[in-house]
Amino acid sequence: MSEHPPPARTETVRLTVSQAVVRFLARQYSERDGQRQRLFAGCLGIFGHGNVAGLGQALLQAEIDEPGALPYVLGRNEQAMVHTAAGYARAKDRLQIWAVSTSVGPGATNMVTGAALATVNRLPVLLLPADTFATRSAGPLLQELERPDSGDVTVNDAFRPVSRYFDRIWRPEQLPGALLGAMRVLTDPAETGAVTLCFPQDVQAEAFDWPEELFAERTWHVGRPLPEQAALARAV
After folding, report:
1. Is there a contact between 108 and 130 (Cβ–Cβ < 8 Å)?
2. Of the candidates 61, 92, 191, 222, which lies 20 to 30 Å from 185 by C-alpha distance?
3. H-run or E-run covering 160
4. Is residue 137 scored above 80 in pLDDT?
């Protein structure tokens, strides 16, 4: 008989990838000088092909089940939504930010200029553009844009050079690491900028058994930039 007790069972909860994203974001907090607040003020979005049945459904359900956890605000222009999020982050001294969700194709590319502005100015914004089918079970549909000679490249790769952190969630198992990596960059004033997580439309609606600890409340310390020692000496 083994002397070692069996490992403790990890409690899980079954959610779609989109539901997991919304629940995770709603439980992130920022802190500075003892003041703690929700990290995400909400999600700006224009829903259509690629995200309406994924993140759109998840945000609606969250508003019903847990009102105010991650409020949704309808946008009218994708670039304007990113500029709004960047301006809000600046006004909040990077302590509170917005997520931005768009449909696949031109809806996503409209965010690229806003992403560049956020990254150049070290302003944290979380971009959640929809992407083409991970399974490639369907060809380009409606407003999808992809390269016919390279199946693993889509128009969302345009976000790579203008993002401080970029990832595409091909499988549900990749989500926890991507979310935690995104939070690390979003809450580091020296490294922050646009963070882009691309979500293929079929993966958004895929159900998975998530460890419950993924949705525990997390508090991220957002430090103040430290002055140069020479500047501090001159001030003294």
Report:
1. yes
2. 61
3. none
4. no
Q: Which two tokens stand for residue 217?
A: 């409340």
Handedness of CA 69, 121, 159, 191 (dihedral sign): negative
Query: Has residue 30 got a pLDDT over 60?
Result: yes
Consecutive H or E run containing 202: helix 201-204
Instruction: Answer for the pair 50, 130: CB distance below 8 angstroms, yes or no.
Output: yes
pTM listed for this prediction: 0.89
Cα(197)–Cα(172) distance, integer angstroms:
13
Give the residue-averaged pLDDT of 33-49: 94
pLDDT digits (tens, 9 = 90+) for 97-118: 999 999 988 899 999 999 999 9
Q: Please say whether the dihedral angle defined by the alpha carbons of residues 92, 88, 189 and 17, taken in this order, is positive or negative.
A: positive
| Structure tokens, 167 | 């990832």
Distance CA 67, CA 129 (A): 24
Structural tokens at position 20: 């997991």
Give the residue carrying structure tokens 């089918």. Answer: 133
Angle at the Cα of 46 (from 214 to 138), degrees rounded to 5? 80
DSSP H or E segment with residue 146: none
For 10, residues 6+ apart whose C-beta sits below 8 A from its C-beta are 211, 212, 213
Domains and CATH numbers, the chain: 12-235 (3.40.50.970)
Q: Rounded distance, CA 78 to CA 101, Å?
A: 9
